[in-house]
Amino acid sequence: MFTDRDRNKVHIAGKHLERRYMMTVYHTTYDLRRGSDKINLKGRPYVMALSHGDPSHPYVYAQVLGIYRVKVLHPTMATPTSMDLLWVRWFEIDQTHQAGWKAKRLYRVQFVPSHENGAFGFLDPDDVIRGAHLIPCFDKGLFVALLVALGSKWDYAPSANWKHYYVNQ
Fold it and tell me: Other C-beta atoms within 10 Å of 91: how many?
């Protein structure tokens, strides 16, 4: 485990991020076969990973905003090493919605408000379990003016984001 002090010593060699637009996540399917999901910034940008802090739900969900490869150098390394990372916007489980097997309803997620710490972050692609299929909750409306425009052609228009999504399981 790295401390904040260790992370502050990491340098990006050449101060350059190489942008990618798609990645493939390989996983085992329910019938023990090999499956894959394509994570595409335009069409399928949602992923799931294991939750390490929330006892109410075993997974966390995120919208991938960017896929990058970067060369990093740490004082303990002899040469720079390539590292892949995902820049994500996190979802949180909607605690006001009854969900799960007993309730016979899909879980519902919403974006972590952009002004809160931890709304955005980086995720190691190796921590991604698979792509997530999120269904917009149309009756709750659109996500309006809660996110400042990011200024990239790859970012979604604010009208494309919904306030809530159902997690298709």
Answer: 23
Pairing of strands 164-167, 108-111: antiparallel
What pLDDT, on a 0 to 100 scale, did the predictor assign at position 3?
Answer: 79
pTM of the model: 0.82
Buried b (16+ CB within 10 A) or exposed e, 17-40: eeeeeebebeeeeeeeeeeebebe
Q: In whole angstroms, how large is the CA radius of gyration of the chain? A: 17
Domain boundary assignment for the chain: 4-167
CA distance linking residue 76 with residue 128, whole number of Å:
27
pLDDT by residue (tens digit) across 151-162?
444 444 544 678
